[in-house]
Specification:
It holds the Pfam family TPR_11. Helices cover about 75% and strands about 0% of the residues. The protein has about 450 residues and is mainly α. Among the domains are: about 235-350, Alpha Horseshoe (Serine Threonine Protein Phosphatase 5, Tetratricopeptide repeat); about 355-420, Orthogonal Bundle (Helix Hairpins), CATH 1.10.287.110.
């Protein structure tokens, strides 16, 4: 104890502090390395099970824990490579070669990434370096000799494009893309060729791939949007009233692109309109709903309302027209549609001449006459064999009334607008709207039946 009292602590304390710090740092280093090894082990296990994203998470942690370990970068680079993330794989393999320039496996992997990116001269240089270290590396030797041919094919494809030979350029680009699927410039070149050949659906597919490969490609998304507006297949079908073709092409577009919101909206908007015009009302309502979920647009709401009218869902149709008017207050189509829907709702409580004859609202005059003859034969009192002749007489009168209205263009137009031309009350209201309360007397009786049988 006396000895301890005589010690000069002012001299010894700094030495003790340094000793303690050294022990702490050594222990911390060991703990840190143990954590890195644990992450590497977990990464290897996940990689073996094919769980690449989980493996990548642990390799990230390992790199952060030991940023100077070339093997950690290499392992993470191989995961990036398997995930098709060329940019990050290239960065990791390059970092490995900075830390250990003679690591042949990393150089060979980087060369393979260069090939997939169509950077053939960079790949050739890496393959050459590999052959210096491993003269009998068959993959490196064969790939080294193949690079000049691939580079020449790339130049030739670009020359075909500049010379206007789009088919030859597209075919050559397709062959190169089999080896270089991550080459955004090759897909862009082929997309431009497809556009020139008017194969716009294929062009959309390639531009979508370009956007995915470049990730931050604002120009690519703008090009895609422009291309969609140039996509004449659907609009041409609409102009020609070929609604089935319109539906087919819009569905093809959805099959190609399901991620870019603008594309999905445009395709569903076309489906909404064309299904409705083709009288596939249930499908129309579904497509309209899909479009409206992405963007509220008055004309889509009107198409939806038209389809709802076809399904005789009058309350929903009225609501849809009102929503359209909230978006575009002066939209005449919505105003006319709302008025028609309200009249049809009221009319639904009365006779529906189309239902009486069992024909569609789009039925031709010939179809109406054919349906009338069939119904008239069925319900003619002289032909009816049921017990209650009064039922037959009433049905027969309704059939005759339906034929009169639907074969007369003017009366049919009134009925389609929601007014029954054979209903005095309905005509009285319409005449008041036209400023002549006595107008309906000018035509005598509203019922003018004429029966013709073969």
């Amino acid at each position: 104890m006396d000895y301890l009292l005589n010690v000069n602590w002012n001299k010894i304390t700094p030495c003790l502090v340094l000793l303690v710090l050294e022990v702490v740092l050594e222990f911390s280093e060991c703990a840190s390395q143990a954590e890195v090894n644990k992450h590497l082990e977990l990464g290897r296990d996940f990689l073996a099970r094919g769980q690449l994203s989980d493996a990548l998470t642990h390799y990230h942690a390992a790199v952060e824990g030991d940023p100077n370990n070339y093997l950690t970068y290499f392992k993470r680079g191989t995961v990036y490579y398997a995930l098709g993330k060329a940019k990050f794989a290239l960065q990791d393999f390059t970092k490995v070669l900075e830390l250990k320039p003679d690591f042949t496996s990393a150089r060979l992997h980087r060369a393979n990434v260069y090939v997939k990116l169509a950077k053939y001269y960079d790949a050739k240089e890496d393959y050459l370096q590999v052959t210096y270290s491993e003269p009998y590396n068959e993959e490196a030797v064969n790939q080294y000799h193949a690079m000049d041919g691939l580079a020449e094919d790339l130049r030739l494809a670009e020359a075909y494009y500049r010379g206007g030979d789009m088919r030859a350029a597209a075919d050559l680009a397709t062959r190169l893309l089999e080896l270089s699927p991550w080459a955004a410039q090759l897909r862009q070149l082929r997309a431009e060729c497809y556009i020139a050949m008017n194969d716009l659906f294929s062009a959309v597919s390639d531009i979508r791939s370009v956007n995915r490969l470049q990730q931050d490609s604002t120009d690519g998304y703008y090009r895609l949007a422009t291309l969609l507006y140039q996509l004449g297949h659907v609009s041409d079908a609409l102009k020609a009233r070929q609604y089935s073709r319109c539906i087919d092409n819009a569905n093809k577009l959805l099959n190609i692109e399901q991620e870019v919101t603008l594309v999905v909206f445009e395709a569903n908007r076309w489906l909404c309109h064309c299904y409705s015009k083709d009288e596939q009302y249930t499908e129309a309502v579904g497509a309209c709903g899909a479009a409206l979920a992405l963007q509220k647009e008055a004309r889509v709401l009107c198409d939806r309302a038209d389809a709802l009218l076809g399904l005789e869902m009058y309350d929903d149709a009225i609501q849809s027209y009102k929503q359209a008017l909230e978006l575009e207050e002066g939209l005449q189509r919505a105003k006319d549609g709302l008025s028609r829907a309200q009249k049809l709702q009221k009319q639904s409580e009365q006779r529906d001449y189309y239902k009486i004859l069992g024909v569609k609202r789009s039925a031709s005059k010939q179809e109406i006459i054919k349906a009338y003859r069939k119904a008239a034969q069925k319900w003619h009192p002289d032909n009816y064999h049921g017990d209650d002749k009064k039922i037959a007489e009433k049905k027969f009168i309704d059939v005759a009334a339906a034929k009169e209205v639907l074969t007369d263009p003017e009366k049919r137009a009134q009925f389609d607008a929601g007014s029954d031309p054979l209903d005095p009350e309905s005509q009285r209201q319409q005449n008041f709207q036209h400023g002549s309360p006595f107008h309906h007397f000018q035509h005598g009786s509203p019922f003018q039946f004429k029966f013709h049988f073969n």
